[in-house]
Amino acid sequence: MPPLLLGDDDVRARLDAPTAVTAVRQALLAHHAGTLTAPPRVRTGLGDGDLVFTAGQLREQGLHGFRVYDDWDRNSDQLVAVWDTGTGRLRGLVHGGELGPRRTGAIGALAVNALARPEASRLGLVGAGVQAWTQLWALAAVRHIDEVVVSASRPARAAAFAERAWRELDLKVRAVDSAERAVRGQDIVIVATNSPTPVLNEEWVSPGTHLTTLGPKTVSQHEIPAALAERADVVVTDSRAQVAGYAESHIFGLSTMTELGAVLAGAAPGRTSAGQITVFCSVGLAGTDVAVAAALLG
Amino acid sequence: MPPLLLGDDDVRARLDAPTAVTAVRQALLAHHAGTLTAPPRVRTGLGDGDLVFTAGQLREQGLHGFRVYDDWDRNSDQLVAVWDTGTGRLRGLVHGGELGPRRTGAIGALAVNALARPEASRLGLVGAGVQAWTQLWALAAVRHIDEVVVSASRPARAAAFAERAWRELDLKVRAVDSAERAVRGQDIVIVATNSPTPVLNEEWVSPGTHLTTLGPKTVSQHEIPAALAERADVVVTDSRAQVAGYAESHIFGLSTMTELGAVLAGAAPGRTSAGQITVFCSVGLAGTDVAVAAALLG
Q: Per its UniProt record, what Gene3D superfamilies does this chain match (chains A, B) (predicted)?
């Protein structure tokens, strides 16, 4: 039987958020248990830029594979390939741009669910691109959200985001005209920009908030203030190895970071009081894209 | 338009030897001209072994891509992916085990054609596996071969090889019961085994012979005698960078090796007299598999 080949239309039609979240949850727990091998990404330099490969082997599911993307500045087709480890047969391939962000959304939803206060129901989004969208898409499947506001550097994008949320997720989202209005007074803040400089002020974040940062977070380029990283009581990432593997240090100290898989397994504390600020530093654990692709390929 | 997905049946049905040889020739010349970027292979370690990626960018054709295979001991499905560099769209995918050896066969055919004496027409094959097969498949498309003999460690395989050559290539091949009988008196010798120790004796090789070695060729494991490597007058490889990138030294000194692309371009001498022994040390230039896949994908 030839491997299944799926594209963005298939991902949109067939991959629902609970499926993605379940697959990613299983992969995060497997990573904690040591049954997901997820080595640091490898790169190979071509004339125009690098191809980047993130591979993983899910031992319990008998699967391995990788995702590949390029780092030159375009929206090129990514590819995820999944093999049955036992037989060596290629199970399937997923190409395009839809799978990766949905996987990241599922990781983020699990982080918010584990780290935000139980009653947290007001969400502020800074950024209205595909990463912000898939965070909301996945989060709506695991948490009841009462109120969502979104801001973007281009206001029309925030408005379009709100309209899409209403149409596709049946969620009322209010587009606001500043990051401050998106952040102040929220229980949950998700920052999903490409900005190399902070897009919010740390005073806007109240005690008890959970904040997720998707965009730049190195010492020289970061979308949230370094002061907020210092003020955070609990900092969690999906992969300490990947944080350690960055060429440049993060604004978060690696020594104080907990892994999301450990929190989900109950092996490490997450939030321990209502007043704490929790931060999730999303780096995209390798192998989670293979897990989501495998769930989609069936 | 979704990327084209082709498998082994498609490769067998659609990829003829002249097409493979033409694509590889173009890639070797591009590598010499500096328009094929072919970095050393990269590996990522999973629980059961490594995934190995060989990537290449063919600037003149506006293509880039990679091949991936694993190094654990099975016959698993390989995958070649080809992108249009300009648009970032995935043009197509080829999976299975057929493309890689045919690409290697095409490289070998170009090497024999460039290095063997013009009148060389007697071929001896040591080894009767897939690599030996594709060497013959490609060579028959570029050279008139009068007489072929083949030996294998398992004689039944040599007999099956001969039968297949008759059926598929309309070539008379004689199966012989020893490597000595496959090597002595030939103009062209192709050694394609997995043997870590020499399968032939250097005295069996007459002056004027061209010899290709496909299998192990490091100092600790080599299928041809180290003495033969010393005796060779001209040593050519498809990629000096890949030879240099091996963890262990080759039995051939890198400093004396010429690249096949340079010989094909007329920029470096190959054989300069009828009595010389020429050796082709095949390592599989990265990017040539992408070139053959691109030719197949159309």
A: NAD(P)-binding Rossmann-like Domain, ornithine cyclodeaminase, domain 1
